[in-house]
Design goal:
Helix 6 runs parallel beside helix 7, helix 7 runs parallel beside helix 8 and helix 11 crosses helix 13. This protein has about 500 residues and is of the alpha+beta class. It starts with 10 loop residues before the first strand and ends in a 5-residue tail after the last helix. Helix content is about 30%, strand content about 25%. The strands form 5 sheets. Strands 4, 5, 6, 7, 8 and 9 form a 6-stranded antiparallel beta sheet that branches.
Amino acid sequence: MKKLKGYISLILVICFIFAASPMASAQEYGSYMEAMIGFMTEMYYEGLTDEEALISVLKGIFSELDDYSAFYDKEETMALINSLSNSYQGIGVALQESDDGIKVVEVYENSPAEKAGLHTGDIIIAVDGESVEGMDVTSAALLIRGASGTEVRLTVIRDGWKMDLFVTRGSVIIKSVKYRIEGRIGYISIDNFDKGTSREFDEAISEMDNANIKKIILDLRGNPGGYVDEAVSVARKLMPKGIITTLDYKSEKFDDQVFYSYGNHPDYIIAVLVDENSASASEILAGALEDSGVGFLIGQTTYGKGVFQNMFSILTPQAYNKYNKMYGGNYVTNIEWLSNHGVWLDDDEIIGAVKLTTGHYLTPRGRFINGIGLKPAFVEPNPIYPGEIDLSKVGPVKDPIELNAYDNNVYNAERILKAAGYLKKADRLYDNDTVESVKQFQADNRLPTTGKIDLSTLKELNDTLSELRINNDKQYTKALETLNCFQD
């Protein structure tokens, strides 16, 4: 009987779900594996506990199956779950390892880091006095994160100067959806499908509906996937009534799942931008829009990840033996014990989690795309990044700017200037370097050279952004051209 369906949370990898160990049905190997683990703990020169040895074996078993299956210990499992959440407790920065310490590569808008004055390009060399030089990003991030309301002292190097910044940690929300309206066309980009993406998309599509926008550019380039239900929720806001996708399981323990759209929304015409890094859940959405006839694809053939994973908590050997004696079931996952015997496991009865490829999905027309991908109707080269700026991520400058302003509006202006060749570093701060680049920009465009971004300079910057996009992003330009062929 297929009892497990109601307990599953579906994701695509990046997508994750839990599944049973392949060794569970191979009981004839039990004594052999026990002996092998004993041999490893006895002989390995650095020494291993029984649990460490078992975890090593589990990692080896699942990692050899395919590129998506893996075993995670409890700490790794929590990190994995957190990576698929759009919120966490911390300061709100993206980090990268560097020779001198940990480099800040992005400061999130309205984050504690932005409020404390942390800049893109700052090099963090110590956290609360502990050096992070030579430390990996994950370890450094664990030092920086903490409970909301607590303070962390960051020692940073900025333009050769050493300083301490005190940041009060808070709740950080990393938005996966960005949108804007350009004339009669709406633009929505989705970076990934994490928990909260569909709520963010609701806000974006509501803005489109309020402005009576029917033609949309949906940018899924570089989107590696995420939760299936989030992608399905987005599809339901865009598609006519019908099938979105079918999840076809290999095991008879699971019912195949068919997700439907109900068509209770305005009709849209959608240009879907994709590339070779659009994968998994983003391919589900792109394929559904294409097959339903409301969308057409522009860009490069997608990644071709047409399989999905299940993820289940795995029992410790002690818990397995305990419940096996009590009920006689040979189950190694929490979901099996819960669905078959109503057993709720304690945290100390779980050793970790397994992510296992358990089936493939199909588009509404039954297309199987694993290893194939989706080929766009309009094949266009990938964008060029002038000044290393991804122009699709840059919004228009909304308000005039003066010296020492520090916010996302400044960041947009600086990125336009950097892409146009006027500025070397975009760090969100309207300092003297930015002023000088604005003066040169103004002089070249026959504007008063005040160094301030007034309304006339603001307009010229936004016109420059549009021109840069047209010249450097052929996929975006093709989307505009094609959508403009349709009447409003």
